[in-house]
Write a structure and sequence with these properties.
Blueprint (H helix, E strand, L loop, with lengths): L1 H16 L6 E2 L15 E4 L9 E2 L76 H17 L2 E4 L5 E6 L5 E5 L3 H14 L7 E3 L5 E3 L35 H14 L8 H10 L8 E2 L2 E5 L5 E2 L1 H5 L2 E7 L6 E7 H9 L5 E2 H22 L14
Helix pairs in contact: 2-3, 3-4, 4-8, 7-8
Length: 381
């Protein structure tokens, strides 16, 4: 009897050791977080490669904070940002020059000095891997600030700007510049096509519990200026998800820029991996032929439409310690940093508009005239 138990334990141990551990999946769930839906998953490339698969397992939830995301590589994608598989069904990682890497028969990257994959750099967007409650709290904070202000517009980079009248009668401007709050705006807008929420949500037992601040059509909608009215639902107070419009996608890119590293770069791979981690694709916003990816096909972007504007900045003079105030057109700065403008569409347009906004934020952060700057200027001929 003891021998039989021993052999049984050995068999169980062998089976456990035989489970493949190379491929890691981003598993999406039917979340309790607002606006999230359930879709299939796509295997991402690891150091051992891995064939692209889909899974009906939807009970795994969001990846834990300890999940290793170092295996999210730059891969070959089509115009929609969807992975292009090899004849063997493998995801196809690229090297730093955009060349296809050599793979083994199991889709793993062959080890060689000139066959090295490129990891996608998330920077501070890695916060997307945090529990849902982190972004939910940040989103609630934005809605609370909106309810306290009297007017809403955007700054030069496309970030929300709130005008508030203080008790002393002073008018103040507050830019929503928190990376977490902007990532929360990006996530909610991309999933729902607006930022309307419900004050109450159903708990696990079907009861209603008041948890979140929410916009009110009577008291809050009038605060939204012409450039930001797209953030409101078509039907007042409706929380139903709506198809994404050109404005939704464009400003979602601006919000994403405000959440990213100021000196970083947004890429197609980063956007697609981030959307998967945030569980953004759903039946309202997905590609008609692939529910696992957001549909960017309706997006068109032209830089001059949004950034043909001038801002007041301070620049250094030839005299150490002295600066002068001047006015700079953002198109000149963007042409210098991101190249001349080109008309683009689909996910390429999304990446272009996000990177333009990112460079504008960098510019404003480095050179904008501070509100408290002493009233001394040096005139430079």
């Amino acid at each position: 009897m003891k021998k039989m138990l021993f052999y049984l334990l050995c068999i169980i141990l062998a089976l456990c050791l035989a489970v493949p551990v190379a491929a890691k999946n981003i598993v999406e769930k039917k979340g309790k977080a607002r606006g999230k839906t359930e879709v299939a998953v796509t295997t991402v490339p690891t150091t051992k490669g891995g064939k692209a698969t889909t899974s009906g397992d939807k009970g795994g939830g969001k990846p834990s904070a300890s999940t290793d995301y170092g295996d999210l590589y730059v891969i070959l994608r089509d115009l929609d940002g969807v992975p292009i598989l090899s004849a063997a069904g493998c995801l196809q990682p690229l090297d730093a020059d955009g060349n296809l890497l050599l793979l083994d028969e199991e889709c793993g990257v062959l080890e060689a000095a000139d066959n090295v994959p490129v990891e996608v750099d998330f920077g501070r967007l890695s916060v997307a891997r945090s529990p849902d409650s982190v972004l939910e709290a940040s989103f609630d904070e934005v809605i609370s600030l909106i309810k306290l202000c009297r007017h809403i517009d955007v700054d030069a980079s496309g970030r929300l700007q709130l005008e508030t009248l203080t008790e002393a009668g002073e008018v103040t401007q507050k830019t929503i510049d928190s990376p977490l709050e902007n990532l929360a705006l990006y996530s909610y807008l991309m999933r729902n096509g607006h930022i309307q929420t419900a004050e109450t949500v159903a708990d696990e037992h079907g009861g209603e519990v008041t948890l979140h601040p929410a916009l009110d059509a009577d008291t809050d909608y009038g605060k939204f200026g012409a450039r930001v009215r797209f953030l409101l639902p078509v039907v007042p107070n409706s929380i139903e998800a709506e198809p994404l419009t050109n404005d939704d996608l464009t400003f979602a890119g601006f919000f994403l820029a405000a959440a990213a590293d100021k000196t970083g770069t947004i890429t197609v791979d980063l956007v697609q991996y981030l959307n998967r981690i945030l569980e953004i694709p759903n039946l309202t916003n997905c590609l008609p032929d692939n529910p696992d990816f957001v549909n960017f096909r309706g997006l068109g972007y032209w830089r001059n439409t949004h950034f043909d504007q001038s801002v007041d900045v301070i620049l250094p003079t030839n005299y150490p310690g002295f600066w002068y105030a001047t006015e700079i057109n953002l198109l000149d700065w963007l042409a210098y940093k991101n190249g001349e403008p080109v008309a683009s569409n689909n996910i390429a347009a999304f990446v272009h508009d996000t990177n333009d906004a990112l460079r504008v934020i960098e510019f404003i952060h480095n050179y904008e005239v501070p509100a408290t700057l002493w009233p001394v200027q040096v005139t430079v001929p």
